[in-house]
What does this fold into?
Amino acid sequence: MDAKERAAHLRERLSYYAKLYYEKDAPEISDYEYDLLMQELRRIESEHPELITPDSPTMRVGGAPVEGFEQYRHDVPLQSLNDVFSFEEVEAFDRRVRETIEDPAYVVELKIDGLSVALEYQDGQFVRGATRGNGEVGEDVTLNLRTVRSIPLTLENVPGRLVVRGEVFMDHHALEVLNERREEEGQPLFANCRNAAAGSLRQLDSRITASRALDIFCFNVQSATDVSFTSHRESLDWLKEHGFKVSPTYQIFHDIADVCKEIRRLGELRGELSFDIDGAVVKVDSLADRERLGATTKAPRWAVAYKYPPEEKATLLRDIVVSVGRMGTLTPNAVLEPVRVSGSLVSRASLHNEAYIKEKDIRIGDTVIIRKAGDIIPEIVCAVPELRPENAVPYVMPERCPVCGAPVSRLEGEAALRCTGAECPAQLLRNLEHFASRPAMDIEGLGEAVVEQLVKEGLVSSCADIYDLKVEDLEKLDRFARKSAENLIRAIDESRHRELSRLICAFGIRQVGERAARSLARTFGSLDRFMAATREELLAVEDIGEITADCILEWFAQEQSQDIIERLRAAGVNFESNEAPQDLRFAGMTFVLTGSLTRFTRDEAGAEIEKRGGKVSGSVSKKTSIVVAGENAGSKLDKANTLGIRVIGEDEFLDLLQAEV
It folds into this structure.
């Protein structure tokens, strides 16, 4: 047998074995034997490229990466379906259909949770496949779809041109295998089967798609030449006979009550299926009746999709552990007895914050009901009080960061607790990236990737460590040659001389951004004077309110912050502002102006007070610091005398303005 004959024989046998395995679930040979035959065919085709055919099983393994996907315009639009969420809506759909159709028959199918595609065949050969896109135009993903082993590459006794619509998906086992592999490689895990399928089908490298074990159920003949059908069920039977995988169940019903029973039955099967469904589809069976019912611009009038509510399961809450995010936010997380929900195994769920825990009265040891919000994110719906252990007590969030031990705080109006530690390891990457960013110390070349390497190698554990780096340290890192290492050290040295406002911004104090940092640097003139500022002096600064002032005081009070500051001082980082410090002689003081002034208008006098950090009020109270009384002062002067508040004239006021600070 020559190479041509052997290749043809291998293609025939491999296609036959694949059909038994993927379509009939009845393999005749082992995976090992199948792989040996595949290797032999691949070897023959590599030695004789002219023998490669479009339907060769070797085409399933993917090819070289492409630069992007071309657009594909669907001949027949891939419309979406109108969703319904109650049986009342299903019955309303039936009434609308019966206004046109006397005795409709319905097909009820599973609504697979995947990615809709169109498959195009010419003379029995799979030639093109595309995503749904917007229904009119999708993306040509032919190379990737060729790797889906349940898609027939060759059909027998079919019309000249055939377009079939289907749903590409990934089953639970394939997702678990994929996520195990990604976890070993340190890659983020896929949240659910649908996300995994969508991400896999849109890979520019079809070899990656081939490794993801995608599957498909076909559910509609979009168009076909030389063949016609009278009903939807007939078309599904035809697809099945010609090697396409179709919905495992598609029964006919004439009574809408039976339709609703079937929807309930399919819903109860969700936990037993090996793949995800998010609903059941109800379709008018007769194609002639469909023509009479027609469609809107977005959806057909002859079908609806019943969407199941999120699947809920009961499980045990083993523990509550607190994680610290890159912004210092403390997030409580539920550690659960693992349970499968909506297609994946769930063992953890976010509890968001202390208020969320108190609102739902969630306690360690509780039996809780969980579901996936949007069928993606696990969440606890409620606890089951009647199953609560007698010794279960309300949960209390920690008063100190579980990572660095610094006190935690909650800003007014916020639900979240935050770590106040300037050197908290949980916040390290974020803090370092911010410190080196353009609005802060502007260290060119010290981006996210380099920061991650420095932390991973143990070279940097706080922003002060940046100034201890040497060229030799950087040369050890990936993609660092002598020249690039010298350039980064030069950029670090240059940052020692940045304006004070950049350093203040670089600290990452809560509520203190670029604008506030400039105001603080301009006002106090040096970091030491800024650190010594009182709350009243801070509140007198433009752009600084009560919450921001408290954040500043809290940050400077931390031992970690003081350590960073002293190390930066030792490293020669500039602590002085190039701008003259602002006069704050009236910080924390409230003035009242009364009577006629001869040297100022009321507005001018008020402006002079505010420029020096004071405030002007229109009425006298116990909080008033000074009353400036001009000629013909009235009741305000009387009240000031009664309350014992200091009263000065215009000359003394002028002396206060002109006195040296």
User: Anything to note?
Assistant: The chain has five domains: 3-61, 72-307, 313-387, 423-582, 590-658. The domain at 423-582 is CATH 1.10.150.20 (DNA polymerase; domain 1). Residues 585 and 612 are 6 Å apart (CA to CA).
